[in-house]
Amino acid sequence: EDEMRAFRRRLRIKARGENVPDCLPSFSLLPCPDASLKRTLLRNIESSQWKEPTPIQMQALPVLAMGRDLLATAPTGSGKTAAFVLPTLLRLEKSEAKLLRNGPRALLLAPTRELASQICGEVQRLAAGRAFKVAVVSKALAATKDGAGQGVFSGYDLLVATPMRLLQALREGKVDLRRVRAVILDEADKLFELGREGKKNTAGESLEPDKSFLGQVDEILAACTYPEVQRALFSATLPPLIHDLASSVLRDPVSVSVGLASN
Ligand code: ADP
Ligand code: MG
């Protein structure tokens, strides 16, 4: 207990909440009941030449792996992507991997299409060797049909999207979020800014800013009706707006911050 407190202090990890799990000092301790999946993940981590988890990974990984909601704040470049991608892959495997696919089981939201593509690339790299199906939600993909004439997104395990694009697919009945077990919002601070400004086209007209970002996220979360869906927010900064967002969408969360000035 005291040892863990000293460990966190040394790495400038601040953790708040009920029953915060211990930090994960090594990737080899990843809590993964599926030995073959664990081997694959460790091999992919090794080929990234990552020696040990970064501080945000050490604390965020075990929190997410146990299914808890999380508010995570750490500077740009501190490894936040893997901090949510690895536990998401662990949880995907646990939930009916062998059953027919009928809708995505995890959702990663990002403020821009570019960032969504980067996250998707990281998922594919860390999951290499497993049969997970992952995609970025785009207009083009939404317009295609699968072999059975069903919405194409039912064939994916994990979707990465901007809230606006996902909401559009949702409203057009092209994606079913009822089986989603985990929703992660990356760069929540930027998401929030974008949502407030609204997107404009080249003529300066507003494009579908019919809702604030919070409204968009609320509508997406309302469509994720699986019981006790896990939610997490990742951000480089922690402005008051993110606090408000966190308290309105997270349930009994653990808050983790690393290397903030206020530490
Ligand atoms: P953030 O989202 O916090 O800005 P990223 O997830 O983009 O950070 O990661 C920043 C860089 O750190 C990437 O190049 C990534 O490959 C690398 N990285 C991630 N985890 C580790 C690790 N455990 N050890 C070394 N490098 C890492
Ligand atoms: Mg990032």
Can you put this structure into words, describing what you see?
Belongs to the DEAD box helicase family. DDX52/ROK1 subfamily. Residues 61-256 form the Helicase ATP-binding domain. This is RNA helicase. There is one protein chain. The chain has 10 helices and 10 strands. The model has no long low-confidence stretch (mean pLDDT 87). Strand 7 and strand 8 form a beta hairpin. The protein has helices spanning 2-11, 35-47, 55-65, 80-94, 113-126, 139-143, 163-171, 188-197, 213-223, 240-249; strands at residues 13-16, 70-73, 106-109, 134-136, 158-161, 182-185, 199-200, 206-207, 230-235, 254-258. With 263 residues, the chain is of the alpha/beta class. The strands form 2 sheets. An 8-stranded mixed beta sheet has the order 1-10-2-9-6-3-5-4, sandwiched between helices. Strands 7-8 form a two-stranded antiparallel sheet. The longest helix has 15 residues, at 80-94. The protein binds adenosine-5'-diphosphate and magnesium ion. Adenosine-5'-diphosphate binds at residues 48, 50, 53-54, 57, 74, 76-82.
